[in-house]
Amino acid sequence: DRQTLVAVLQFLRRSNLRESEEILRREARLLGDDLGSAALSPTGTGLRGAAGGDADAATGEALLNRVTAAATIAIGGNAAAVASSSPGVTAVAAVPPGKVGGAVVVEDQPDVSAVLSAYNQQGDPTLYEEYYSSLKHFIECSLDCHRAELSQLFYPLFVHMYLELVYNQHESEAKSFFERFHGDQECYYQDDLRVLSSLTKKEHMKGNETMLDFRTSKFVLRISRDSYQLLKRHLQEKQNNQIWNIVQEHLYIDIFDGMPRSKQQIDAMVGSLAGEAKREANKAKVFFGLLKEPEFDVPLDDEDEEGENEEGKPKKKKPKKDSVGSKSKKQDPNAPPQNRIPLPELKDSDKLDKVMNMKEAARRVRLGPECLPSICFYTFLNAYQGLTAVDITDDSSMIVGGFADSTVRVWSVTPKKLRSVKTAADLSLIDKESDDVLERIMDEKTASELKILYGHSGPVYGTSFSPDRNYLLSCSEDGTVRLWSLQTFTCLVGYKGHNYPVWDTQFSPYGYYFVSGGHDRVARLWATDHYQPLRIFAGHLADVTCTRFHPNSNYIATGSADRTVRLWDVLNGNCVRIFTGHKGPIHSLAFSPNGRFLATGATDGRVLLWDIGHGLMVGELKGHTDTIYALRFSRDGEILASGSMDNTVRLWDAVKAFEDLETDDFTTATGHINLPENSQDLLLGTYMTKSTPVVHLHFTRRNLLLAAGAYSSQ
Fold it and tell me: Which of 291, 446, 505, 525 fits 475 for a cystine, CB–CB 3.0-4.6 Å?
């Protein structure tokens, strides 16, 4: 095609690639004389062909733009073939990824125009509706077993075909295509379709990140081999290249051998922005076991001994203490090596705290369906500042609230008031050798039930106490994470790394490390003594809305508005699990105390349960009618508590939910998950508040459930 050739030559001239231009011209002369006479003016801007003329120049310019786009794509290493406007002709710029005629171009981020230009027109815009409806007809008439699987194609094809029409400026065709077929899509894509319906012009697509992601990441469908063969045969017989091209270019079809999945099995797993997770994504080994607890003796207090004697049960304490000791001696076979990541040394105060913890544990209530926990609800009254985050210390002595007026407020919930350390002048007078030195350094004059911390310049969306209760983290809309001292109630560090709002932050169960996640779609791992993040976990296609450390601190779970949950390895920053199945942004995560399972809650009102080792969904708890903002397992993992915007706390039987799981190799290989039909069997109780959405849940060391939220008067 002469015009194309001229355009390519001109592009090479513009890019100063003289050699390539010469070679191409020599080659072209062999093709025919009239091509040989396609002369290029020295400036490389004007175009004179044998037939010369403005029309030619205009087409040449248009083609040049297309070729430029094609080359850009090759640079990005994405695709090298771009079709030209006439249906029969294809202009191909095949350049090895990353190289253009000897000039090496390094480009990390997919260039917007390059990404979008893959939408250069391939078919007749008026036929799009026909293509889509013929495929729809074929799928709806196929056998039941294949229909459920092939119906997954509707949504990604609909989006790509619509975007292709918009990109090529066939606005009226795009509008009628959208109106005709958007009603057929699954209900859980409604929000995405709303965004899509607002993209009606090519210019709108440039700035829309969500759409760019949809374009750059392949939409993953999991389909059985039989269904796939059926689809392929149909598209090839029909010569329906338009759809076949989209399938090949923009979809990743994960084919498995075996029975096709049922509608119910598929519905449980789909719904995220990029389809399902590839099965490969969940194959990596995960050390989900717990680290060995350091051994030290638990001294029995005299009062304890006497107290036990008075009650007439002197022998009860001893065996319990032994069982605590012996439990920690066995190394969990699924645990990571003790030194896999460096963890801070235990201080004396930490050891004292562990001793206290063990004593409390000895008095812990064993929960179960017959013995439900008492619930103590902390209601924030008159919280006109807008309560946006809550956390409670592990020993349940303090509670913190983050507010929309950018303040962080800390309360003591025990009779012991909050006190700051004395001034330096006063501290120098203290006898450092005295036994009660830790008491003496505190300034009684500062004692109060509430301390207010000022420093953020936007709403505070996440708060987290350090395990040793010396520090407090808060993250805010202002893009920073702040570390506060609970000795002086002042800000020690502001960590700047996120450029946008930070939605959540959490301390590692061992202290020292913490994680944050925000609107910039990445989670970051920090250490308290480093200004810069140690790891950046990138992969989510939308905001990272919540973050959680695994009990062994080697992994971090993140939930996102792209409706997926990812598990990241702290050691190397790799993503080791991707869980899809939620139909809305994820707002709460909780690991079971034994580290084997993860519970996730989202705006769809469902709690999903995951087996981390096998990378499988193993349960779905339905009951809430609004976003689930809080999830927590009881201390021994028998009960899962969930708190929601629907003003209820629900208790679920976790033991029953996780027993006799089908996690054989077959299930893992095909994703044929069989969720119990009725999650009501697992619901142990529902507790309504008057009008208080539940923002946080916490089990005390003795298994009393604490809940918190702000009373809303509407």
Answer: 505
